[in-house]
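Table S2 (continued). Query chain:
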Amino acid sequence: TRENAVLVEVKVPILAESVVEATLMNWHKKAGDAIRRGDNLIDIETDKVTLEVPAPNDGVLQKIVKSDGQTVLSDEVIALIDTDAAPATKIALNSSTAEPAPTGKQAPRLSPAVRKLVAEHKLDANTILASGKGGRITKEDVLNYVEDRKSAPAPGGKQKHGVESTELVLSGERPEKRVPMTRLRRRMAERLLAAQHENAILTTFNEVNMQPMMALRKRYREAFEEAYGVRLGIMSFFAKATVQALKKFPIVNASVDDNDIIYHGYYDLGIAISSPRGLVVPIIHDVDVLSFAEIEARIIEFSEKARESKLTIEELTGGTFTITNGGVFGSMLSTPILNPPQSAILGMHKIQQRPVAEEDQVVVRPVMFLALSYDHRIIDGSEAVQFLVTIKEQIEDPARLPLGI
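Corresponding output:
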């Protein structure tokens, strides 16, 4: 360390009150690298989101205090930046940590932990498929590459046995792979178990004729998109119908706090979205005052952020009711689990052509099954059934939506 060096601490961002700790993922810089203010130094995974930690100053990354995979707390120091140093001259690494020589192309940039792992297994980094941000190789990429090589049939068609690995156990033709859950997945598992144990969950079902809504969408789709720049989807219809039902049955919008029932005078809907890291539920606040276009725009924004792991903790916090659409994956019927502390959740499903009776005649219509899971401790069956019927009525007669009836 230089004498009189001006060091700036790199700290874990302030986490939300509900987030106790986080996990360091992959350092994008290594000690001695020149950095500029705003450069993403490392990604941090919480049980809700992935956060980027930008460099607070220009300088040289003087020291990495916490390495990949370590658990850290809010505001904890994870690195030091020398703001008064010129970019360090790279020192040749000894053979135990040197990167394999490139084979015909520029060698990929590796974190210290990944570089060490590559060296230990005597691998060519250029042959490893990278899945990290910006095309970087992660520790998991290296381990998967090693496992793939070990599990590949040996010359002559024989399978290798006796693999020494904490993640892959081979037994004849029956391989098994052990992979630790991500923090998001662990937290999701904890919440789902808690929901099952702490709530009296029941589910009621109904079906809805989607023909009137789909005809309305078809009629105004082009004009809507031209006017607002977003596609008119079905989620905005269900969001608006849900708000009308919540207004009619406020107990469904309530939550339990010990021996008290908390009635919420606002309508913040969680929209379940699948992401590469698992299911996330960003919140659309004050849906009752938003237009169809604003709701559709929020859903598009959240979907893009979920794919890029850009959702903030604030965007995932709160919510009084949740809508989940398993139909996008082909689900015909399911029983969704509550998203505590909420007391109910609406499950949408795949739209399928089905025979239905209309005016004593059998006709084919696009039909969707709906499911409402609810906490029977505070919501009676009659309220749950009428709530779902209200949504059905709104969707089957969408002219009611702007009228609020």
